[in-house]
C-alpha cells in the first residue's frame, strides 16, 4: 500500500467519520481512521473471496465464543503494511504502538475454547480455506476484572464504546428468529479475517439480536415510556452478554435463547445460500456444506437444521436426518462432568416446542438403531438424547456427528477409553484426534518481533511464518554460542518490556533480572493455581529458615479470571494476593522472591506475558486439561514447560524432549490406582512442610477478611478429600522446581532448553490443525483468489 494513499485515507476518514482534522484527532479517532483506510483497501478482495468460496464446498465453524483480542496490529502485519503505516504515522508525529494500545480487546470468549476459535479462523484465512465462522456479537464480552484489597471484583466489558471499525453490518442478510414467546431479528456483522501473505479475506459472521420494532408507538403515546421499549430491551438482552460458564438457573433461559439464536440464524443463512444455488433441491447439500460444532454450545443447530428441512423445505424426516449426519462434526473440549451440557426439556418445550418434537424423533431413530444392533434397554439408556427430563447435548452431537474429535492425543484416548467408551464401541470410526494449535502470526511474529527477526535472520527468509515446521531448521544452531546469546538477550529485552508494562498496569515494580515463573489461564481448581501458591509459601518458609537458600531471585506471575459465581476460585485469587502481600512485607524474603497477580488477564496482556517468560507452568491434575494452548504459546516463545503429564503437555515434551522440560507428578494411571484409597490427611500429617503451608489457611497467618474463603480451601484439601490431588503432587512439584533452579544456574544449558523448545514447536501451529480438519473431517481444499 502506498504511503500517500494511507495518509489520504486517514485524513479522509477523520473528516467523514469524525468531522475533524488530524491535528485535533484523539487516539481512538486515529485508530478508527487507520482501520477504515485498511478496510477500504481489502473490500474488493473480501467480496471476491466470498464469491469464490460460494462456488465450491465450504466449511462453517459454529462457535458461541471467539476470543479475538485486538485487530489492528495483527491485520496490518498480516497484510504486510505494518511498516508503511508505522512510517506514515510517525511522519505525522503519531506512534502506531500507542494507537494499537487504545484498541479494546474483543473478548467474546471465556478462555481456551474461544481463543482456539480465533486461531482457527485466522489459520483458515492464511491457508485460503473456504471456511466461515459463525458466532454471537455480544455487546459485552467477558467481564473486566479488578483486584481490590486482594479480592476479585468484576465490571462490565464495554468493548464497543468507541464503535467498532472492523465489521460491516449486513442488513440484506438479516434473519428472523422465532421463539414461542417472541420474534426477533438476527443482524449479521461481518468481520474480515485477514490471512498472512494472501489476498484471500475470510469472514467471521457475528449475529446481533435486535427487536423487530424499535418501540411500541401506542404505549409511547400513552406516555408509558418504559413499557414502550421493554420489547426492544428484551430482544437486545439476547446478545447482550457473554456468559461465564458457571451461571446458575437464573441465567439459563437466556443462555439457551442465545444458543438457539445464533444456531437458527446460522442455519437459515447457510440454507439461504444453498437455495440461491440449488433451489429447493437438498440432495447435494452435504456435498457442498460441512459444519463444525465447537463444543456442544451450537448443538441445537442440528435440530433447527432438521426442523427447517422438514417444516419449510418439505424434506422427509429420514432424509433430513441423513443429510444432518453428513453435515455436522463435533469437537469435545472437556471431560469435566459439570461442563457437559444438559437442558431441562421443560425449558426447551417452553421456548421452542417444535425443537423438542424433533429431538424426540432423533432420539427414536437412535434407539431403533441400537435395538437393531441388539443393545439391551439398560445400555440404551446411556446413549439416549432425552432422558430424565433432560436433553443431553453431547449425545445428540455424537449420534448425528460425522466425526467426533478430542483436542489432544491423551484427551482423545480418554474419551475413547472411558468417558465416551460406549459411543466408541458403537461408532469406532467416528472418533478422531485433532491436537490443538495456535497461530504463529499473533503468538510469535506479532507479539515477539525481536525473536521473529532472529529466526528470519537464521533461516534466511520469513517463510516460517506460514510454514512453522521450518523452525526445525534452527536446530543446527543449538550449540552455537552466539545464537544462544542472542536468544537470551532477546528474552531479557522482552522481560524488561514486560516489567515496564506491569509497572504501568499494576503499579508494581519487578526485577527483569529475576527468573519469571508464569502461570496464566482461567482460574479453576483442576488447573491447580493453589498448588503453585502452596509451593511458593513453602519456599517462603524455607528462605526464612535458611536465608542463604541457593535459588535464583524469582518473580512468580499469575494471571487468571475466576468465574464470578465460582466461590472457591475467588478464594484462590485472594490466597495468591495474600501470599504476595505477606512476602512483600518481609524485608528479607522479598529480596529473593516476589509474587505478582496481574489483573484483567486477556489476549492483549497475554501477548506481553508469553514472550517475557522463563518458565511455563502447566500443572493441571492429570487427565483434566483437555489440551491447553497457552502451553504452546510459551513453547513458541522459547520457554520450557513445567508441567504434569496432561493434555498437550505430553506432545510438547515429545517434540522438544523431556530433558528440555520439567514433567512431574501423578499420571492418569497413577491417579486411577490411588483414587479410592487417597487420603490427603496422611500427607498433611506426615509431611511437615505441607502441614505448615496448609495451616496458614486457618491459623491467622493469612487473612481472608472474614469471608470464609480460606477455611473453604482448607476443607477442600482435607475434608473433601482434595479432589485435584494437590497434596499428592506437592513434593513432586517441589523436587521438580528445585531442578529448575539448579539448571538455571548453567546459563548455556538453560538457553539450549529454551532454544530446543523454539525449534521443536512447529507442529503446534494451528495451520497444521486446520489442515487436519480440512483433510480428515471437512474435505475442503484451498481456494485462493486471483
Ligand atoms: C466448562 C465449565 C463449565 C462449568 C463450570 C466449570 C467448567 C470448567 C471448564 C469448562 C470448559 C469448557 C470448555 C473449554 O473451554 N475447554 C478448553 O478447550 C481448550 C481448547 O480446546 C483446551 O485447550 C482446554 O484444555 C479446555 O479446557
From TrEMBL:
Write the record's keywords in alphabetical order, separated by commas. Carbohydrate metabolism, Glycogen metabolism, Glycosyltransferase, Pyridoxal phosphate, Transferase
GO cellular component annotations, sorted alphabetically? cytoplasm
Which Pfam families does this entry report, sorted A to Z?
Phosphorylase
Q: Which cofactor does it need?
A: pyridoxal 5'-phosphate
Q: What is its EC number?
A: 2.4.1.1
What biological processes does GO assign it? glycogen catabolic process
Q: Which InterPro entries match?
A: Glycg_phsphrylas (IPR011833), Glyco_trans_35 (IPR000811), Pyridoxal_P_attach_site (IPR035090)
Task: Show the PANTHER family listed in the entry.
Answer: GLYCOGEN PHOSPHORYLASE, GLYCOGEN PHOSPHORYLASE, LIVER FORM
Listed name of the protein: Alpha-1,4 glucan phosphorylase
Protein source organism? Clostridium chromiireducens
Starting at the broadest rank, the lineage of the source organism is: Bacteria, Bacillati, Bacillota, Clostridia, Eubacteriales
Q: Gene of origin?
A: glgP_1
Amino acid at each position: 500500500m502506498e504511503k500517500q494513499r494511507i495518509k489520504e485515507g486517514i485524513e479522509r476518514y477523520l473528516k467523514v467519520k469524525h468531522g475533524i482534522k488530524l491535528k485535533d484527532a484523539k487516539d481512538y479517532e486515529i485508530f478508527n481512521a487507520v482501520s477504515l483506510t485498511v478496510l477500504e483497501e481489502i473490500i474488493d478482495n473480501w467480496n471476491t473471496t466470498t464469491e469464490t468460496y460460494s462456488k465450491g464446498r465450504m466449511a462453517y465453524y459454529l462457535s458461541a465464543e471467539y476470543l479475538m483480542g485486538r485487530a489492528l496490529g495483527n491485520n496490518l502485519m498480516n497484510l504486510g503494511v505494518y511498516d508503511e503505516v508505522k512510517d506514515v504515522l510517525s511522519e505525522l508525529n503519531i506512534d502506531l504502538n500507542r494507537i494499537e494500545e487504545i484498541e479494546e480487546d474483543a473478548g467474546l470468549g471465556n478462555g481456551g475454547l474461544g481463543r482456539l476459535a480465533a486461531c482457527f479462523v485466522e489459520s483458515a484465512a492464511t491457508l485460503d480455506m473456504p471456511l466461515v465462522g459463525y458466532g454471537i456479537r455480544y455487546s459485552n464480552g467477558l467481564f473486566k476484572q479488578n483486584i481490590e484489597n486482594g479480592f476479585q471484583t468484576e465490571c462490565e466489558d464495554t468493548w464497543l464504546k468507541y464503535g467498532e471499525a472492523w465489521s460491516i453490518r449486513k442488513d440484506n442478510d438479516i434473519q428472523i428468529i422465532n421463539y414461542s414467546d417472541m420474534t426477533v431479528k438476527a443482524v449479521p456483522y461481518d468481520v474480515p479475517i485477514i490471512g498472512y501473505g494472501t489476498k484471500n479475506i475470510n469472514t467471521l459472521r457475528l449475529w446481533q439480536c435486535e427487536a423487530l420494532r424499535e418501540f411500541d408507538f401506542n404505549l409511547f403515546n400513552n406516555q408509558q415510556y418504559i413499557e414502550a421499549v421493554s420489547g426492544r430491551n428484551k430482544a437486545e438482552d439476547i446478545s447482550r452478554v457473554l456468559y461465564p460458564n458457571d451461571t446458575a438457573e437464573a441465567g439459563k433461559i437466556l443462555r439457551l435463547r442465545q444458543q438457539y439464536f445464533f444456531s437458527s440464524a446460522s442455519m437459515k443463512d447457510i440454507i439461504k445460500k444453498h437455495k440461491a444455488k440449488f433451489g429447493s433441491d437438498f440432495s447435494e447439500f452435504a456435498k457442498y456444506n460441512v459444519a463444525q460444532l465447537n463444543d456442544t454450545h451450537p448443538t441445537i443447530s442440528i435440530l433447527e437444521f432438521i426442523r427447517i428441512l422438514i417444516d419449510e423445505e418439505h424434506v422427509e424426516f429420514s432424509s433430513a436426518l441423513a443429510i444432518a449426519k453428513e453435515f455436522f462434526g463435533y469437537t469435545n473440549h472437556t471431560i469435566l462432568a459439570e461442563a457437559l451440557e444438559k437442558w431441562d426439556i421443560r425449558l426447551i418445550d417452553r421456548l421452542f416446542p417444535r425443537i423438542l418434537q424433533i429431538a424426540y424423533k432423533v432420539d427414536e431413530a437412535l434407539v431403533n438403531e441400537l435395538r437393531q444392533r441388539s443393545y439391551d434397554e439398560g445400555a440404551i439408556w446411556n446413549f439416549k438424547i432425552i432422558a430424565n427430563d433432560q436433553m443431553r447435548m453431547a449425545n445428540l452431537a455424537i449420534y448425528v456427528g460425522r466425526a467426533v474429535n478430542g483436542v489432544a492425543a491423551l484427551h482423545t484416548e480418554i474419551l475413547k477409553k472411558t468417558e465416551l467408551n460406549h459411543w466408541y464401541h458403537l461408532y469406532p470410526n467416528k472418533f478422531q484426534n485433532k491436537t490443538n494449535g495456535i497461530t504463529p502470526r499473533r503468538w510469535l511474529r506479532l507479539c515477539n518481533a525481536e525473536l521473529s527477526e532472529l529466526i528470519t535472520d537464521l533461516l534466511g527468509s520469513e517463510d516460517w511464518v506460514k510454514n512453522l515446521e521450518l523452525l526445525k531448521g534452527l536446530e543446527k544452531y543449538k550449540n552455537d554460542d552466539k545464537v544462544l546469546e542472542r536468544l537470551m538477550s532477546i528474552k531479557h529485552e522482552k522481560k524488561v518490556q514486560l516489567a515496564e508494562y506491569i509497572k504501568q498496569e499494576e503499579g508494581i515494580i519487578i526485577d527483569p533480572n529475576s527468573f519469571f515463573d508464569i502461570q496464566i489461564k482461567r482460574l479453576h481448581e483442576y488447573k491447580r493455581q493453589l498448588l503453585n501458591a502452596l509451593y511458593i509459601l513453602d519456599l517462603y518458609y524455607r528462605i526464612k529458615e535458611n536465608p542463604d537458600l541457593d535459588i535464583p531471585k524469582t518473580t512468580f506471575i499469575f494471571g487468571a479470571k475466576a468465574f464470578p459465581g465460582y466461590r472457591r476460585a475467588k478464594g484462590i485469587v485472594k490466597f495468591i494476593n495474600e501470599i504476595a502481600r505477606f512476602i512483600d512485607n518481609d524485608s528479607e524474603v522479598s529480596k529473593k522472591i516476589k509474587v505478582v497477580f496481574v489483573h484483567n488477564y486477556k489476549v492483549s496482556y497475554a501477548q506481553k506475558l508469553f514472550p517475557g517468560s522463563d518458565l511455563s507452568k502447566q500443572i493441571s491434575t492429570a487427565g483434566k486439561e483437555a489440551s491447553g494452548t497457552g502451553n504452546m504459546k510459551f513453547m513458541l516463545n522459547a520457554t520450557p514447560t513445567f508441567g504434569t503429564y496432561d493434555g498437550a503437555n505430553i506432545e510438547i515434551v515429545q517434540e522438544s524432549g523431556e530433558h528440555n522440560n520439567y514433567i512431574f507428578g501423578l499420571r492418569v494411571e497413577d491417579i486411577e490406582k490411588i483414587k479410592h484409597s487417597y487420603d490427603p490427611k496422611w500427607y498433611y500429617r506426615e509431611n511437615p512442610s505441607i502441614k505448615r503451608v496448609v495451616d496458614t489457611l486457618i491459623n491467622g497467618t493469612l487473612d481472608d477478611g472474614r469471608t470464609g474463603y480460606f477455611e473453604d480451601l482448607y476443607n477442600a484439601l482435607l475434608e473433601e478429600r482434595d479432589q485435584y490431588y494437590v497434596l499428592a503432587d506437592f513434593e513432586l512439584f517441589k523436587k521438580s522446581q528445585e531442578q529448575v533452579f539448579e539448571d538455571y544456574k548453567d546459563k548455556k544449558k538453560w538457553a539450549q532448553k529454551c532454544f530446543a523448545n523454539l525449534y521443536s514447536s512447529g507442529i503446534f501451529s494451528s495451520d497444521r490443525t486446520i489442515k487436519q480438519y480440512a483433510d480428515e473431517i471437512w474435505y475442503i481444499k484451498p481456494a485462493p483468489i486471483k
